Every structure is written in structure tokens, then in C-alpha cells.
Amino acid sequence: MTDFENQRAGFAAIIGAPNAGKSTLVNRLTGSKVSIVTQKVQTTRFPVRGIAMEGDAQIVLVDTPGIFTPRRRLDRAMVASAWGGAEDADIVVHLIDAQSHINAEGREGTAADRRSAEDTETIIANLQATGTKVVLALNKIDGMRRDTLLALSQKLFESGVYSEVYMISAANGDGVEDLKQRLALSMPKGPWLYPEDQAADVPVRVLAAEITREKVYLRVHEELPYSAAVETTSFEDRTDGSARIEQTIYVERESQRPIILGKGGQTLKWIGQKAREELNEILGRQVHLFLTVKVDPKWQDSRALYAQFGLDFDV
Fold this sequence. Notes:
Subunit structure: Monomer.
Low-confidence stretches: 36-46, 66-75
GO biological process, one term: ribosomal small subunit assembly
Strand order of the largest sheet: 2-3-1-4-5-6
Largest sheet: 6 strands, mixed
GO molecular function, one term: GTP binding
Subcellular location: Cytoplasm; Cell membrane
Mean pLDDT: 78
Distance between the termini: 45 Å
Strand content: 15-25%
CATH architecture of the largest domain: 3-Layer(aba) Sandwich
Membrane topology: Peripheral membrane protein
């Protein structure tokens, strides 16, 4: 039993460029699947609060959207959401993909590596402007030379925004426990904010939509750019204990509809089956899932979709 007098609870925000590994880290810290993880960058659209327990401390993790240079309304809302999550936190961790950052400086660096390094520079500039001190976590260190990592951390420390550094692999867990203990020490004294066995503070309709959207990108990530959204339009608890969920997958153009449907509807069937299997497991009951694909060129201007994910439409 936990001694109530010793309880601590607070918020830890994890910021970083898209694809730095934020969602993987949140999932590793909480020990459950909270944020969706795909090979597509920029898949987290709203701050998912994962809840990690460390001794008497409850760490509420704000998994922010990746911070990048915004171009569209949705981009602006996501970046504003990320910085908002950081401002409200008791401690901020800046997660950097170490391998990508090193690659960006060499000939083998891809366009994605260079974009990630540019986004990291943007984040550092913002932190310098606000005088914010944060914890640096170098991620994806697997197979990297120690002297290379030390040189990178030294270079980043010269920016003046970091108080300390942790070298981790969110994918296999190396160094994550040390970081978790550091986060626990930063939590202010006070009663826990959530029940001990709760892993996330995500409305179930939103979680269901995100799980389906993950399956969409896992299946069609090559053919479909960022032009799909999923909305849970109906969530019904049935008398037999099961749940009936209706969802709409929005695409921007008519030519994208057949990509989601697949030949003879096989792709949509696969998406629905995989999403249903995961929802059965997460909700602990049988789920009947019904998917519809709609073409809406202006779905990114839908206030209702922004509201579903807790994003500010008017940024």
C-alpha cells in the first residue's frame, strides 16, 4: 500500500521533432499502449496523457505532437498544442533522435534527417527565447559509438537550454528506467491525480479513432500522404456487454478512396479487423466495428474534428 502522505503527482511533457520516438517512449514508460506508433512521422495529433507509476510518484506524461515548421491550419494547431503541453508541465524532456541528428551532418544524411535536425534547431531557439531549462534525452542510441554520443551531447549543451542528459533507447528500454526515476523526483508532493491502475487519460471515442487511424497508415503509408482522419461517430454500449462502434475515415480526394478500400474492399476489411482486435484487447470486451470511407476535401477545416482531439481550431 502507498503511504498517502508521501504521494507525489505532476506532469512531464515530452517534446521533440516528428519521429523522434516520443510515442514509443510514452508507451515504454507506462508499460502499455497509449500513443499510436507508426513509421509515418507526425502521427500524434493531440497530447495523450499516459500515466506512469514510480514508487510513490504518479507521472502524468503529456505526449505532444511533433514540433515542426507549420504550414497548414492543422499544423499550426498541432504545434500550438505541443508548446501548450510543455508550458503546463512540471518537467520537460526534449527527445532527440541521435542517429538522425548525426546523419544530418554527414553525406549519408537523408532529407528526413536534415528536416529533423532543422526542427530540433527550431525547438532549441524557442527554448532559448523563453529561458526554459529542460532535460535532454538522446534516443535511438543503439549501435552508436560512445564518443560520438558524448560529442553530440556536448554540442547540444552549448545551447544553454539543457540541465542534464540521458542516453536512451525507447525501443528496447535502455536507460529509460533512470529517466523515469528522474521524472518521479520532479513530481510535486500531493495526492495522485488518477487511479493507480489507469494507464491513460484519453476519451475512449478518441482512442478508438486513433487506433483505426494507426491501422490505416500501417497498411497504406506508401500510397497515402497526410490526408486521412478518423472520427468515431457512434459508440454504443450493448446489453450483452459488447460495444458497437461506428467510424468514418475521411480522405481529401476521390482518388484516395480506392486506396483505403482496396481491391474488393480487402484493405478496408484488414484495417477494420486489426483495429477491432486491438480494441477488443484494450477495452476488455467484444467490439463490433463498422467503418465508412468519405471524401471531404475540407476535413482539415472541420471544427468538430479539432474538438475531438482537443486542438484549438483558431490558432
